[in-house]
Amino acid sequence: MLAMNYRGPLRVRIDEKPMPKIEHPQDAIVRVTRSCICGSDLHLYNGSVPDTRVGMTFGHEFTGIVEEVGSEVTKIKVGDHVLVPFNIACGECVFCKQEMFGNCHESNPQATAVGGIFGYSHTAGGYNGGQAEYARVPYANVGPTVIPEGMDPDDAVLLTDVVPTGYQAAEMAGIQPGDTVAVFGAGPVGIMAARCAWLFGAGRVMIIDEIDYRLEFAKNYAQCEAYNFRDMGGDVVQWMKEQTDWLGADVCIDAVGAEAAGNAMQTITGRKLFLQAGSATALHWAINSVKKGGIISIVGVYGPTDNLVPIGNVLNKGLTIRANQASVKRLLPRLIEHVQNGVLNPKGLITHRIPLEEVSEGYRIFSQKLDNCIKPVLIPPSARM
Questions:
Q1: What pLDDT, in 10s, does the model give residues 27-43?
Q2: Which of 140, 229, 251, 263 is deepest in the core (most CB within 10 A)?
Q3: pTM given for the model
Q4: Do the beta carbons of residue 182 and residue 253 sit within 8 Å?
């Protein structure tokens, strides 16, 4: 089968790889119909995530048609068109029982923090992902969800990560009616977080980035204010205070993570020398821009090691920090309803539909932010017939 093949930092290509097989009675094999390239994939592509191994197939956002199921799979059947959450979850451990499906204690033998994730580094279990013609889906009674009749596959594929992660960012922020919400990062997740902030009653939503075309897209898609931090006179925190009667935003959401720009020291130590787990610039801004007693919600991805953050300010301002990988399965019923009722329009984020065979070009366009790219989706040959 055709599959994306990681060959080292900034090098991916399409290759013939062996077909996945049923390895456990609870496995399923799906024929992929859509697979996204995520901002998190770029962390892997850029070589920023430890234990990303040559030969891996990325892709944690995908849909597919069930081709084969193991003997213990009862919740889906051959021929079902399913969306596959990026979390790999057993459904039985103490954390899955609490609906913390992103923290499954059984699906990732490589770590005790995050659960298994499709197409990520071996710190998340080392599972191959969906940027391929076929994918093996473990614990198939838990994660895969049949796409409701009439739902556009382009909407469905974004329910595997982008929509739930953006929604959970707003949910974790504890937004109260009338709150001022600042979202750092105008990538797909940040844009969705800004859009979802309104659903929780925000009175004002601002999004901050450095890419003008993304800011323009965010302003239109999420109906929010959009600002380029390069135009803030060199002091984002000062600017934010000026915008909020010198109090700070009620809520700040970090939707950037490890590859943030805007601070030379963070860039050098986090992205060039790898002395910390990525650049924590956006998190710094969030901590220092939020009001006293405010809430920081983190969905931007950082590595598993340490970061330099102003923890003293967290204490002295009485801040609450909430963070986690999105618990996709928990959120799906509500988000499917929002899509079916027209409250959310996930496919509106998609700007590029790229043949799977051109995956390397897809990574080039997305990573270099070319052609006004917001969200690229890969389409395998069989899904184009």
A1: 999 999 999 999 999 98
A2: 251
A3: 0.95
A4: yes
